[in-house]
Amino acid sequence: MNGKLYLCATPIGNLGDVSSRCLEVFNSVDLIAAEDTRRTIQLLNHFEISKPLTSYHEHNKHEKGGYIISLLKNGKNVALVSDAGTPAISDPGEDLVKLCIENDIDVTSIPGPVAGINALILSGLPTRRFAFEGFLSVNKRHRKEHLESVKNDTHTLIFYEAPHKLKNTISDMRSAFGGDRKIALVRELTKLHEEVKRCTLDEAAAFYEENNPRGEYVIVVEGAVETENSEENVWDNISVKEHVDKYIAEGMTSKDAIKKAASDRNLPKRDVYNEYHRGD
Ligand code: SAM
Ligand 1 centroid to 81 CA: how many Å? Predict the structure, then answer.
């Protein structure tokens, strides 16, 4: 019988956040696959757990993935641990989960800390709808394209960032989102110097002109204000006829209504006219 892969969330700072189930799993599995073995050894030593460890990270995930799958197929149980927090969130755990699914191997999760969600709930920004955007690329063009692609999203956005890239990222976000956009810079969660800075992108840029970013950061960004652009999709949900009739019902002439609907949909007026009068 195949073994099972346990995705074990570990603390993002405070060791008191490890769950008793997580420790039980560490004690029961045959092997722990860790993104950063040195960090995981410290955790295991703290809880006096002695278990075989192997590394599984971005640079060895292809060969190690195959090795871990072969162990699981031989009935061994494996715990997967990221350097901190929840595995498969901004780490190669995602690939191992996919491999397990392809190989019919059971995967289960042992829930616990995740930096992005804790930053979101502390941010004071809307939590009802949000998107996790992870790390921006180091490639300048890709970073810009990423930010441009989300600038009109009206839900809250969550980004991870390393301290030495924070100033650049704030500057790129300012260019893409505008300086008035609200953000929360959530730093060193669950640690001694935990801090939440709630401000605008302009204020953040001014602050980090004078101060150097220190520690681990999550950047939570307010969504865009609803504009005509963000209504674009609304037109996808109604027919051309309904669209034109809406403006006529609001008092426009049919000529103006056709012109406005054509502009909303970025279509030639003639196409909207023909569609509106089709079947007359
Ligand atoms: N798997 C982790 C999770 O569940 O959140 C994230 C791993 S990702 C490689 C590391 C990034 O998470 C850091 O660069 C930082 O953006 C964020 N992070 C991790 N620990 C944090 C903490 N204590 N406070 C703030 N951000 C943290």
Answer: 13
Indicate whether 11 and 50 sit together in one domain: yes
Strands 78-81 and 4-8: parallel
106 shares its domain with 141: no
pLDDT tens-place string over residues 210-223: 999 999 999 999 99
Centre of ligand 1 to C-alpha 84, Å, is 7
- Strands (E) across 91-240 are located at 106-110, 130-135, 156-161, 182-187, 195-200, 217-221
Domain hosting residue 267, numbered range: 231-276
Tokens matching residue 51: 């278990």
Domain at 93, CATH number: 3.40.1010.10
Task: Give the number of the atom of ligand 1 that is nearest the alpha carbon of residue 93.
Answer: 1
Q: What pLDDT does 232 receive? A: 56
pLDDT beneath 50: ranges in the chain: none
The CB of 112 under 6 Å from ligand 1? The reply is no
Q: How far is CA 236 from the centre of its chain?
A: 27
Report the number of distinct structural domains present in the chain: 3
Asked if residue 48 belongs to a domain, the reply is: yes
- Count Cβ atoms below 10 Å from residue 259 Cβ, excluding itself: 17
- Tell me the pTM: 0.82
Beta carbon of 173 within 6 Å of any ligand 1 atom: no
Does residue 172 sit within a domain? yes
Choose one of 109, 190, 193, 217 to mutate for the ligand 1 pocket test, by most ligand atoms within 8 angstroms of C-beta: 217
- Ligand 1 centroid–CA 134 distance in Å is 10
pLDDT tens digit string along 153-179? 999 999 999 999 999 999 999 999 999
Domain end position, chosen among 47, 79, 113: 113
